[in-house]
Design a protein that fits this description.
Length: about 525
Amino acid sequence: MSKQEKLLTSRPSGIAASALSGVRWNYFGGISSSICSVVIGIVLARILGPRPYGQVIIATIIYGFINLFVDGGFGQALIQKPSVDSVDIRKTFTCQVGIGAFTTALVYLFAPWIARQFHDPSAVHVIQAMSLMMAIQSTGLVSAALLRRAMKFKIIQYSGLASYLFGYLIVGVPLAVHGAGVWSLVLAYLSQCFLNSVLLYAAARHPVVPIFGFPDRSITTFGTTIIANNVANWGHSNLDNLAVSHLGPVALGLYGRACNFAYQPVGTVVNGMQSVLLSSTAKLQDRQRLMHDLTLSVISIAFGVLGAAYATFALIPGTTIIGLYGDKWVGVIPLMIPFAIAMPLYGVHCLLGPILCGLGRPDLEFWPQAISCGVAAVAYFAAARVSLVCVAWALLGIMLIRLVMIAAFTFRLLGISWATASLLVLERAGFSAVFGCVIWSADQLLRMLTWGAGLRLGVLFVLSTTLFGCAIWFAGHFVFGRHAVRFMLSYASHLPAPYVQRLRLQGGPVIPVAAAPS
């Protein structure tokens, strides 16, 4: 085994330092990608309108489902397994690439039938072209898993950001400007996927000579459980789109844009922590008290950050949507209130899943997912018979059910009290409500001055960012909660010294550092 392979397959020694570094780089990449996505998405949405987005959503629904089986759950299994050798890597790579090629051919052949099921026969060629993503992405999955195992999150974020900018800024926007329509989105997706796989493999080269046969039983068993969880996750992410597709491509485009906008902030917060939580908890499985405090801190921080952001969106939906996307997308506005309430619930749910997987109990995530997915299937299709807005409110109900169920398993496993967790959530909800009302009041004042939606949104963005930054600096215990502040102080040596001094004034007694990993 080469020196690079040994580095990628071994465990990093400084868990806390590696985890905090991973969080920083994940957030750098996540925030950078989100900013680019919002800006480029605004440009494309204003040029293209809802229908092209509706057609691409059809293809991405299929891609998302099939890709669950392309990965096979083997990527997370490689991360979680205590030791990995070249045989594991070659077998996993062979399986993933083989499944990727097979599913690409399968989707290409069945594209006409798929398009008919979505009531949009004109989407056939779009589905066929985007089926190539499954074969392309499969070539980079093992490299991505090895980089996450080694906690090399900086490389992953650079690769993702560079490929996104190439795909959308260099390929997608120019094609849209020149009238390529939906194909500007298709080619942007494909070029992003291709470059990302190339960059990941260049950073984490591994043996590619095929070994036919499944990886060893521990990887296969763990991967199978992950697939089951991911299928349930896919159902939660796409059943609402499937239900809305019966209302036509324009309605699907509107709903898809609302989803894209609503999931963007929570995705930035959650994605930056998920892979780090999985890698970290896999190394801390025998330290239950530390995991207890970590889980409560994660819940408190997530609700504090996400609650403030989404309270703002819920209270100024018209200014936000019209200011960003223009009058073509006014149909999105009624969807924003239920989406804004649902997203913090979704974010915390997504952070509890990696904790259970890292503890070696992905089965405890599966059952809440499967049960709530069945409920979602009935709720979404029933709601779609009424209106688009009813689907959004159904999504809120499903998010609440999912969170309560997975939290019940997590709390029981780690000995967390519902009273303690509920108090943390209520405190963060109070802060979020006050923060949102301040921004709403500012919006009403600007409306009295007859400012346009775009100008109002720009001023409110600067105001909310400034106020939230000040709240984190001067009143972190209100934003994150005292428990989270005390937990953060146990890692004071890894945080900026000036901020540590501010936190010490707010957090009270520090959780003993002896309980924290080095």
